[in-house]
């Protein structure tokens, strides 16, 4: 979202506040919503991979694997589904997300860029093409900031599928 105040006016001049917003993200696949034991693997210079149990109605029983490339941040944190209304993004649209969502005008991305300003080769433009994705699970919420997200299906346990995806 861009802030538009009119000709000759800028957001900087008026301290315009842009509010982050979460919108549902259609990944073309669903996973078992009540199954715990999702596996998130991330490497400092590699992808972040989330492996989930396939939805019980899915004819493909292989694991659903969400794979992010160009990762700047990946975390798996509370709250669980019973306390989701306490998540900082809940009132900003997370309440409407059943599976996955994308955060627009992300405070997390802004914070990462600001934190990196002390780096001697800091380039704010390198943060412009990042996405902030959020995945609601039974026992936690996964948030990843990265350049690209793809969905794969892999056989095996969730741990095996995550490990394989993170190393290929």
Pick out its properties.
4-stranded antiparallel β-sheet, globular, alpha+beta, 168 residues
Question: What does this 3D model show about the protein?
Answer:
- By secondary structure, the chain is α+β, with helices and mostly antiparallel strands.
- It has one domain (21-166).
- It has helices at 11-14, 107-116, 158-166; strands spanning 21-24, 39-42, 48-52, 63-69, 73-77, 100-104, 131-136, 141-146, 148-154.
- The strands form 2 sheets. Strands 1-6-7-8-5 form a 5-stranded antiparallel sheet, covered by helices on one side.
- The N and C termini lie far apart (35 Å).
Largest sheet: 5 strands, antiparallel
Distance between the termini: 35 Å
Into how many domains do the coordinates divide? 1
- How would you classify the quaternary structure? single chain
**What's the average pLDDT?**
90
Largest sheet, spatial ordering of strands: 1-6-7-8-5
What's the alpha carbon Rg, rounded to whole Å? 18 Å
Order of secondary-structure elements: HEEEEEEHEEEH
Q: Could you say which structural class the secondary elements and strand pairing correspond to?
A: alpha+beta
Residue fraction in strands:
25-35%
Poorly predicted ranges: 1-10
The gist of it:
The chain is α+β, with helices and mostly antiparallel strands and 168 residues long. Helices cover 14% and strands 29% of the residues.
Task: Outline the fold blueprint.
Blueprint (H helix, E strand, L loop, with lengths): L10 H4 L6 E4 L14 E4 L5 E5 L10 E7 L3 E5 L22 E5 L2 H10 L14 E6 L4 E6 L1 E7 L3 H9 L2
Antiparallel strand pairs: 1-6, 2-3, 3-4, 4-9, 5-8, 6-7, 7-8
């Amino acid at each position: 979202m861009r802030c538009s105040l009119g000709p000759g006016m800028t957001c900087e001049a008026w301290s315009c506040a842009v509010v982050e917003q979460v919108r549902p993200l259609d990944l073309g696949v669903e996973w078992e919503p009540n199954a715990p034991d999702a596996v998130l693997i991330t490497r400092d210079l590699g992808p972040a991979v989330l492996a989930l149990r396939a939805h019980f109605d899915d004819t493909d029983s292989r694991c659903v694997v969400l794979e992010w490339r160009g990762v700047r941040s990946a975390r798996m944190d509370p709250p669980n589904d019973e306390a989701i209304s306490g998540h900082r993004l809940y009132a900003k649209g997370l309440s409407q997300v059943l599976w996955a969502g994308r955060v627009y005008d992300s405070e997390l991305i802004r914070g990462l860029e600001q934190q990196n300003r002390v780096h001697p080769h800091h380039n704010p433009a390198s943060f412009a093409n990042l996405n902030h994705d959020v995945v609601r699970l039974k026992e936690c919420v996964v948030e990843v900031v990265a350049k690209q997200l793809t969905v794969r299906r892999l056989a095996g346990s969730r741990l095996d599928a995550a490990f394989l995806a993170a190393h290929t």
